[in-house]
Amino acid sequence: MIKMNCVILTACIVLVAFCSCGYTLRCYHCENSPSLCKTNSTCLATEDTCLQMKFGKLRTFSCWKASQCSVNDIAEFFQLDNFEFFCCQHDLCNESTITRVNKAAFSIASVMTMLWMLL
């Protein structure tokens, strides 16, 4: 019975981690901010990426399209020459450049823990 509970718990964790059907991305949204952004918004259905762009001491945070996440597209849209940027595709991931543990890593660690408990 304990093994069955562990299997069910593991399955639930995996399903929750990867379930995103009908889900709209949320990104931080600030323009020309001198510090990290605290405002967030729900992206449009056509915007599937969060963008953070740094130029000088200012940063811009917004929803964006993955297909336009390139130096040339961003430079043309914002009319900039010298900037840094990164794009990411999970909720509020454009807060900072700090890498967070993603859902896949969390799920794998959970499964490994459950398997270790069973053996």
UniProtKB/TrEMBL annotation:
Residue ranges of every copy of the UPAR/Ly6 domain listed in the record: 25-105
Compartments in which it is found: Membrane
Q: Which residues constitute the signal peptide according to the record?
A: 1-21
Q: Which PROSITE patterns does this UniProt record tie to the protein?
A: LY6_UPAR, PROKAR_LIPOPROTEIN
Q: Which one GO biological process term can you cite for this protein? A: complement activation
- Spell out the Gene3D superfamilies in the cross-references: CD59
Which UniProt keywords are given for this protein, alphabetically ordered?
A: Disulfide bond, Glycoprotein, GPI-anchor, Lipoprotein, Membrane, Signal
Q: Mainly resides where?
A: membrane
UniProt keyword annotation of Secreted present:
no
Q: What is this protein called?
A: CD59 glycoprotein
Question: Taxonomy-wise, where does this protein's organism fall, top ranks first?
Answer: Eukaryota, Metazoa, Chordata, Craniata, Vertebrata
